[in-house]
Specification:
By secondary structure, the protein is mostly helical. Helix content is 40%, strand content 0%.
């Protein structure tokens, strides 16, 4: 009999027993252990750490973002501004200028998403 382990239908080792809740009791040799509810304690649904708590036990407030209308104005303004600058700089036609507008929009969108 060979020492190599074969994978079962769920990706775990064929001879592995499952703990309650469907998670593997132990990881297969060289395999990846599945996360359980105990592993996820203190994490949100997206895998980020839960909000820190203040000394009195309340959740600390997250920094506030700009209003949606302000974020929208930034990206639309960047699109229009880039398009106008490209037209003034001598873009061959409006399509070329709008392409530069798209580049400006993408840069502004990254700024808005990253910079809260």
């Amino acid at each position: 009999m060979s020492d190599a382990t074969t994978d079962g239908p769920d990706g775990g080792a064929a001879g592995e027993t499952a703990a309650p809740g469907g998670s593997a009791a132990k990881p297969a040799q060289g395999g990846v252990r599945r996360l359980t509810d105990a592993d996820a304690k203190g994490r949100s649904l997206l895998g980020r750490r839960a909000a820190p708590r203040s000394a009195d036990g309340d959740e600390a407030e997250l920094p506030e973002s700009r209003p949606l209308w302000q974020n929208g104005a930034i990206v639309v303004g960047a699109f229009a501004g880039s398009t106008v600058v490209a037209e003034i700089a001598g873009a061959t036609n409006l399509g070329t200028a709008l392409s530069f507008g798209q580049i400006g929009f993408a840069i502004a969108l990254v700024f808005v998403l990253v910079k809260r």
